[in-house]
Amino acid sequence: RPVRMTLPAGATLANLTWSPDGRRMAFTVATDDAITLWVGDVASASARQLTARPLNAVLGAPCDWVTSERLACRFVPEGRGPAPQAATTPDGPIEQEAMSGRAERAATYQDLLKSPQDERLFAFHATSQLGLVA
Fold first, then answer.
1. Which of 12, 48, 53, 109 has the most crowded Cβ, counting Cβ within 10 A?
2. What is the pLDDT of residue 122?
3. How crowded is residue 62: how many other Cβ atoms within 10 Å of its Cβ?
């Protein structure tokens, strides 16, 4: 049977996942400033924010149910600071390997990080702190 639930106005929802017992669902709400974790209760048809701490969804869905009452989540590290700025002088040469000249069977994406700055930015954005949320 359909259940109508009131959610945050203008919310962008993603990463919906049901608890193992099917009584609750967890989802993320994205704003301009952060991605936060919410949980909806089917019986009461209500939703509430579980934590104000921003989640890190760079490498996929940031939370998974551990039990029907707890979620394991990846959070933006506390005190992370600003993103690394590009150096005004190069760190060294940028090395590239020429293709072998033969066609590959599947597309690969080995060259997405093209410089040391790209590597620093990836590490900055992908680094997470793990935590349990009840």
1. 53
2. 92
3. 24
